[in-house]
Write the structure tokens for this entry.
Amino acid sequence: MASLQEYLFISGLLFAIGLAGVLVRRNIIVIFMCLELMLSSANLTLVAFSRFNTGTSGLPDYNGQVLVFFIITVAAAEVAVGLAIIVALYRARQTVNVEDLTSMKG
Amino acid sequence: MPFFFYAFAAIAVIGAICLICFRNPVNSAISMVASFLGLAALFIGLNAYFVGIIQILVYAGAIMVLFLFIIMLLDLKAVERRQRANPLFLLGGIVIPLIFIIQLCAILPQVPNQDSEPLALKEAAKDFYDKDRKPDEQSEIHQSLEKGSLPDVHLVGLTMFGHKGDNSTIKTPGYNFPLQIIGVLLLVATVGVVALSLKKRDSLPENSEH
């Protein structure tokens, strides 16, 4: 079994890769996928803390895993709404490139 | 055990790197499935079997199918080809996550670096022993803990829906109210998606002018 630090490092690494994707990529769908990756890496942190916080009973702290369950549910709802927005955007502008969306530029 | 951790962590990280490196969004989506499968395997390695399976079903199953479907619907290949990343964005995209990782490496040594012991299942079984019942009529959680297997789904359900028994160390009021709020949220999301993707009748003549 790997140690807590290694799990947290992997989680932070995945979060950083997702952040890099959000900053570098111009395709709004790939940006959205990177956001999902960042959400998911936060889940890894929660599950790792839940596993290593064996309380008095000697079992993992299941409150953390319930929180992960809620996060996954919210993420599913978020993906559905976000993709509907992307489809509506594509219908209105015929593009998914964020550099073409300049109507809020001063 | 560490071998499996490193293998699946490598799958997750390499999948994530491929996600941001591939030009074609379909390749990105497929490598994201690999990343999520690696992540689910890490969850299962952390004895969180329920969360791992949910991760595979919801993320690698439902969400990625939705992404692939939208990519297919919009037919993005031609759009992606002319894209050339702005070097300034590229610089920011490398420097900012690098700063984040350096901060992470600075803060990690302060975390207690415990190697997790295997769970003490037999001892934990005592907490779920119900004195009012006969030994062979004990709850499922107690029985499987006695047998040395972790009844992960039952324990998640116990935490989520609450427990009023006297002999258990888990005495949470449960998450019934948050569950109902999540249900309302899903309903709102469903209605919102339908409303967003509905074509407005009166705006059709405007669109045809473009």
Q: What stands out?
A: Chain B touches chain A through 92 residues (CB under 8 Å). The two ends of chain B are 61 Å apart (CA to CA).
